[in-house]
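Q: what sequence does this backbone want?
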């Protein structure tokens, strides 16, 4: 006859005959017994290998770039040819490197344009499509289509739209005569805004699909309660729905910041990021893999770009989570 003196008796919550401490021990043992040794190895592999790849491909190069920003190196002669220069690269960037100021200004304009125009427009589209209008999935696909296109292809599309002699815009407004053409992409006072319109076309679709997903998860009883209290649609959205979408808003802010600072493809396709389209990412590329081969100098610009992106995002997240903790 089997000895069942050490068997785990089923334990139910509220069982008066069982002390609470004993109950928690038994439940903990039963939970641990659900994972076999093989399961633990699989879980460990699923955590460790992606972590190693992430560190090797993301944080490793990032840390290397920060270290190289304090050196002078043209990539020739191996690691032994690297010479420490302290803060010389940063000093030169802020004092004797003319492309840096316009590139930084253009990146900030890029962020502002996305935050003020592209993001609200994407949210507006999401609110319209959340009403289950006829053919809403077709509209969602049409608005989201630019997101699946690379910025390089969007750059080619921009050239077709804004071409001086055969472009869509000049033909639309009747500026087709040789002495009356508008060079949208060649004029340094116009090309940045033309490119931003095209880039926003893609960004709005990205924002729209995120807000559509967020709006689908909002409890409809909140809107009904607001309507019963006499709130209009606009009041209901901004005072009831929009605060509920706080996690989505945080994600979109982070994405907007990243997209604004990493913009590169579209301006490089149009004119290689020159003549009014200078960006920090273009300066990094030109210095590291260009003819200059100034790896330390380019790494310093990349480090500045990293600090700008992290400072804004981390500051916002810190105040957001601190306010939530206080509530």
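A:
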């Amino acid at each position: 006859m089997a000895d069942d003196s050490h068997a785990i008796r089923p334990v139910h919550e509220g069982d008066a005959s069982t002390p609470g401490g004993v109950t928690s021990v038994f439940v903990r043992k039963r939970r641990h017994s659900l994972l076999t040794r093989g399961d633990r190895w699989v879980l460990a592999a699923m955590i460790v290998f992606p972590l190693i790849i992430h560190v090797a491909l993301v944080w490793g190069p990032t840390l290397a770039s920060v270290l190289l920003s304090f050196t002078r190196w043209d990539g020739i002669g191996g690691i032994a040819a690297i010479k420490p220069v302290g803060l010389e690269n940063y000093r030169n960037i802020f004092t004797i490197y003319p492309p840096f100021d316009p590139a930084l200004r253009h990146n900030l304009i890029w962020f502002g344009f996305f935050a003020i125009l592209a993001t609200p427009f994407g949210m507006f589209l999401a609110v319209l499509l959340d009403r289950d209008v006829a053919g809403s999935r077709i509209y969602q696909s049409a608005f989201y289509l630019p997101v699946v296109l690379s910025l390089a292809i969007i750059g080619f599309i921009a050239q077709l739209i804004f071409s001086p002699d055969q472009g869509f815009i000049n033909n639309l407004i009747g500026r087709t005569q040789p002495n009356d053409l508008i060079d949208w992409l060649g004029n340094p006072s116009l090309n940045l805004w033309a490119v931003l319109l095209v880039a926003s076309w893609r960004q709005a679709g990205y924002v729209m699909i995120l807000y559509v997903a967020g709006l689908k998860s909002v409890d409809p009883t909140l809107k009904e309660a607001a309507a019963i209290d006499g709130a209009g649609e606009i009041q209901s959205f901004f005072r009831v729905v929009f605060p509920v979408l706080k996690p989505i808003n945080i994600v979109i802010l982070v994405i907007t910041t990243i997209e604004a600072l990493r913009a590169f493809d579209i301006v490089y396709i149009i004119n290689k990021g020159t003549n009014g389209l200078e960006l920090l990412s273009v300066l990094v590329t030109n210095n590291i893999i260009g003819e200059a081969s100034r790896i330390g100098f380019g790494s310093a610009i990349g480090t500045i770009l990293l600090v700008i992106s992290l400072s804004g995002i981390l500051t916002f997240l810190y105040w957001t989570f601190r306010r939530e903790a206080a509530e």
